[in-house]
Amino acid sequence: MSINYFGRLLILLSTSIHCSSYAEIEFSGFAGLESRWFPHDAQFSDQFNGAQNSLILEPEWIYEQGDHQISFIPFARIDSRDDDRTHADIREAYWLYIQDNWELLIGVNREFWGVTESRHLVNVLNQIDQVENIDEEDYLGQAMVNLAMQKDYGRFSFYVLPLFRERTFAGDDGRLRAALVVDEDDAEYESGAEEWHTDFAARYSHFIGDWDIGLSYFHGTGREPTLVLNSTATRLVPHYEIINQIGVDLQYTYEEWLWKFEGIIREGQGDTFAASVIGFEYTFFQFRDSDADLGVLLEHLYDDRDEIDAPVTVLENDLFLGTRYTFNDIQDTSLLAGGIFDLEDESYSLRVEAERRIGDSLKVEIEGQLFTNARDDSLTASFKEDDFITLRLSQFF
Over the stretch 10-42, which tens digit does the pLDDT of each residue have? Predict the structure, then answer.
């Protein structure tokens, strides 16, 4: 993150912070050691082979006094092999003012929308921190002003979003990248205001009986860039367009069933296109007379975007199958395993995530990813030698 961004953030927060000697301050967070091992030799020049080790730090301060709350969560990673994966970010740094039926938040925050497991289509406010992981579950902090109003007939949220954040990508040395490196320093924008373009968003959410409903609208710089060749055809350059996106997310709960849907319509990146994720999660509670719960997940992913003018995606007609095993023990042990299967070119990737707490403050996590059966002319061919296993040990405080 640049010094300019920190400076702009301080300006944004300076009018919001309220201090008092009677405040309650909480401090928590974690520090972690991570080792990611790639069993296969890299297929592109400059990429490393073997293990990739790193240190992670994410402290958290929460300040509360009356109707006021201030949250500050910085994040930093030091990586042993990829300079672009060594980075810092402010995940959260906001002032929140809470009243009976409305809230005002000013600062940096992470806001999550959506219900599906395999892909988060409607979640458009925060930029993906892709250098952290390719599963698109890590997000950069986003500067915002958020006004939310709670009514008997639903929650209305309005967002003003300055200071656009560019997506992070693996560097020359890094794994999990395409043959050509993405040059983040030469990013291009459709808007002449570039990262200073002010974006707007609104969301309505409510629950009616067993239904959870979300409707959203976003106008501004799309978080998903189109990658284009530079003038010498030696690197890829991210190009950020102005988009309009309407999103719908639905969840229906019926006994052991969770039926889920996310859908979007987006314009501004080639022809207007639609994308959706639809599926279910069925849970066997107290599986085989144990304390554990076993969930079975199935989702279909569809995307009909322009293959030339829109950002590329491999999730055009795919099926996600997975299982979630929650032990419900004192160590909070859990296991999630699943795969995404391309119904057109028959390639697929498998992923396993497991975690378990050790004592009161340690947690161990294991993550594995396998790419297989990728055709040489497919987008996933860039990752065909990038199977990996990650071991992470975190100390919480």
Answer: 555 544 444 444 679 999 999 999 999 999 999
pLDDT in tens, 81-96: 999 999 999 999 999 9
Tell me the C-alpha distance between 105 and 231, whole Å: 42
Q: Which two tokens stand for residue 381?
A: 């061919």
Q: DSSP 3-state assignment of 316?
A: coil
Q: What is the pTM of this model?
A: 0.91
Please give, one letter per residue, the 3-state secondary structure of 329-354: CCCCCEEEEEEEEECCCCCEEEEEEE
Sort strands 236-240 and 188-189 into parallel, antiparallel or unpaired: parallel
What is the domain extent for residue 258? 3-396
CA distances from 60 to 199, 275, 331, 337 (A): 27, 36, 23, 30
Distance CA 195, CA 284 (A): 47
Is-contact 218 241, C-beta < 8 A?
A: no
- How many domains is the chain partitioned into structurally? 1
- Say if residue 344 is exposed, middle or buried (CB neighbours under 10 Å; 0-12, 13-18, 19+): exposed
Cα–Cα distance for residue pair 282/269, rounded to 1 Å: 36
User: Which domain CATH number covers 213?
Assistant: 2.40.160.100
What are the tokens at 169? 């990508």
